[in-house]
């Protein structure tokens, strides 16, 4: 048996089993909340002085000591103790060691329940801001490629079959759009995160005359939580952020998977910078896109973390339950994984090179101009379904003759539609097909250039 746990009161008649100490401790991972915990405690102490619960001198002693503790932790000079359970008790114990009874007054009007909720909200808010910065960095990498790649045409795919030709920047802006939706989701999530929990205490509030708005303002929160029972059990903000991180990981996985394919000999579309590749232990010729593969693979753990968090809260009664301690490792792991992936992705995008010679050598394969030809017929008055059937017949003829649509004689075109003349060749071939696009949001060269300008302005790129 061991001594009493710091969370035990005088009501206990026996000490905590040493195995329980090991099983319940969270300091091994929640020490990452130390800066937020200290920041929240400083705001709480200053508020207690403002309402007269602490003297100004007591508050100054507490805030000064907390600032010194933070400096020690920042510098690696602070020893966290597993027996003190968590980051909150470690810091409070250090404060009491320095100030005695003055330090013991800090916890007035709050509980570890609202304290950990506040710490988590502050940490998530900071993490969201960093996630957004990294997303913007990756967007800038994609947009930064557009001018140099503006004349490069790529085959776009549906069902992994060649479909239509698009400008390379149109591809890059597709990912930029996905990342913007991630940023929009983050901004919306941040609004719900940015609500102060502090002062709701264990679950019912407190009889101490605290000022919750005072603390919220000091911590930069936009408001205070309205129901103390809800606050004690609420981890919606953690799950919502975990979901946004999962969407980001999914988008990164799609991009990474595509570039893994594109870097293969079979595609040979792109060269991934070699500093982000590795070799083989036995095959000397290999240049493996391992970083892209791992970005794709690590999305699985982010998805798994979200699943774990969803299961964690599904059956918990109101209000606080110790189960909620299990959210931190899943949250931290998702943030770390996504942040590292985003940072590496930006460098890969910036340094990759399109293999234009290889791309162009096969660009006319796959009848990428067939849809443009169909729409040319529609423009001449042929109903869409009729035009679709007629162009399908022309593709079959070209396949039989083992040639491209542009290489068919005019007689073949007139055989399926006698309204066709020499002008049909004005829309045939990949370059002409791309030039024919007109709609907003399309791969029209003019539209793509406008979109590039828009994104440069939005991302504040020179």
UniProtKB/TrEMBL annotation:
Residues 11-304 form the Fumarate lyase N-terminal domain. One of its GO terms (biological process) is L-arginine biosynthetic process via ornithine. Pfam families: ASL_C2, Lyase_1. Keywords: Amino-acid biosynthesis, Arginine biosynthesis, Cytoplasm, Lyase. Residues 367-435 form the Argininosuccinate lyase C-terminal domain. Gene3D superfamilies: Fumarase/aspartase (C-terminal domain) (1.10.40.30), Fumarase/aspartase (Central domain) (1.20.200.10), Fumarase/aspartase (N-terminal domain) (1.10.275.10). It is an enzyme of class 4 (lyase). GO terms for molecular function: argininosuccinate lyase activity. SUPFAM superfamilies: L-aspartase-like. Its main location: cytoplasm. Its EC number is 4.3.2.1. It is found in: Cytoplasm. It catalyses: 2-(N(omega)-L-arginino)succinate = fumarate + L-arginine. NCBIfam families: argH. Belongs to the lyase 1 family. Argininosuccinate lyase subfamily. This is Argininosuccinate lyase. The lineage of its organism: Bacteria, Pseudomonadati, Planctomycetota, Planctomycetia, Pirellulales.
């Amino acid at each position: 048996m061991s001594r009493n746990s710091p969370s035990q009161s005088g009501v206990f008649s026996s000490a905590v089993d040493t195995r329980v100490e090991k099983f319940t401790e969270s300091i091994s991972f929640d020490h990452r909340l130390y800066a937020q915990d200290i920041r929240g405690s400083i705001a709480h102490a200053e508020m207690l002085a403002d309402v007269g619960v602490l003297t100004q001198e007591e508050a100054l002693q507490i805030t000064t000591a907390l600032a010194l503790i933070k400096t020690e932790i920042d510098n690696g000079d602070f020893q966290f103790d597993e027996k003190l359970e968590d980051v909150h008790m470690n810091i409070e114990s250090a404060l009491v060691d320095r100030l005695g009874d003055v330090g013991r007054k800090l916890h007035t009007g709050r509980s570890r329940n609202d304290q950990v909720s506040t710490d988590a909200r502050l940490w998530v808010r900071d993490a969201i801001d960093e996630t957004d910065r990294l997303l913007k960095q990756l967007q800038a990498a994609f947009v930064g490629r557009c001018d140099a790649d503006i004349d490069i045409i790529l085959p776009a795919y549906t069902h992994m079959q060649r479909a239509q030709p698009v400008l390379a920047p149109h591809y890059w802006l597709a990912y930029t759009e996905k990342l913007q939706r991630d940023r929009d989701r983050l901004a919306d999530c941040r609004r719900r995160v940015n609500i102060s929990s502090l002062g709701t205490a264990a679950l019912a509030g407190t009889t101490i005359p605290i000022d919750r708005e005072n603390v919220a303002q000091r911590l930069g929160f936009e408001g205070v939580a309205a129901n103390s029972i809800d606050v004690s059990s609420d981890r919606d903000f953690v799950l919502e952020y975990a979901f946004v991180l999962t969407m980001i990981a999914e988008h990164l996985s799609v991009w990474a998977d595509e570039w893994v394919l594109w870097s293969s000999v079979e595609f040979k579309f792109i060269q991934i910078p070699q500093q982000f590749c590795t070799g083989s232990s036995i095959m000397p010729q290999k240049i493996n896109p391992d970083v892209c593969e791992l970005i794709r693979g690590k999305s699985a753990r982010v998805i798994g973390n979200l699943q774990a968090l969803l299961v964690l809260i599904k059956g918990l009664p109101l209000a606080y339950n110790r189960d909620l301690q299990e959210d931190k490792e899943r949250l931290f792991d998702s943030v770390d994984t996504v942040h590292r992936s985003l940072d590496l992705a930006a460098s890969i995008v910036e340094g990759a090179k399109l293999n234009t010679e290889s791309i162009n050598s096969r660009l006319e394969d796959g009848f990428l101009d067939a849809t443009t030809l169909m729409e040319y017929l529609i423009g001449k008055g042929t109903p869409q379904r009729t035009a679709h059937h007629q162009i399908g017949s022309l593709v079959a003829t070209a396949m039989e003759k083992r040639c491209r649509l542009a290489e068919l004689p005019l007689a073949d075109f007139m055989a399926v539609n006698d309204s066709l003349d020499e002008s049909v060749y004005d829309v045939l071939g990949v370059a002409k097909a791309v030039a024919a696009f007109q709609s907003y949001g399309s791969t029209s060269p003019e539209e793509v250039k406008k979109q590039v300008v828009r994104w440069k302005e939005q991302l504040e790129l020179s």
